[in-house]
User: Fold this.
Amino acid sequence: MCSIPPFPVSDSLVMAEPRSIISASIPQTPPGIIMPPADGSGTAVMMDPIEYTLRKRLPRKLPKRRNDVYVNMKTDFRAQLARCQKLLEGGGHREICVHGLGLAINRAINIALQLQASRQGALQLAANTSTVELVDDIEPEDPDEAGEPMARSRNNSAIHIKVFYPDPQ
Assistant:
């Protein structure tokens, strides 16, 4: 059965210039960072991105085992794939766990599929997804003029792929 979108999709939905003089005369606020208050009160804080620096903290890692591989986008793909192959072949492990966070999810999936294809299907995959809470620090550029540093939390997707040889039966 075909689902119908709640409203017709057409070219008329494309954003255009304001048509009335009233809406055109309203000043547009520059883009900024809107921070929820730390104390839970109802007023948000508007911060100028020029006055503050956003520093992303490293994610909290799962316990590091010898057969865990954390995939990232900075390391060369072939090097990460070779490390996984080395763990499965010469490392004496019958299974490894490939972890990817955010943008590295596609790379983690690709590594797992490449490992499976290189063994002509002898390896099996079991994937789990999760959401990881990340914390960012927002620090003032000039500590004398600006306010105090703040922290902001956000969520990011993660994948955990178990690559293993099935038990012979």
Summary: The CA atoms of residues 116 and 123 lie 5 Å apart. Residues 1-31 have pLDDT under 50 and may be disordered. Helices lie at 21-25, 77-89, 105-118. Strands lie at 33-35, 45-47, 52-56, 68-71, 95-101, 124-140, 150-164.
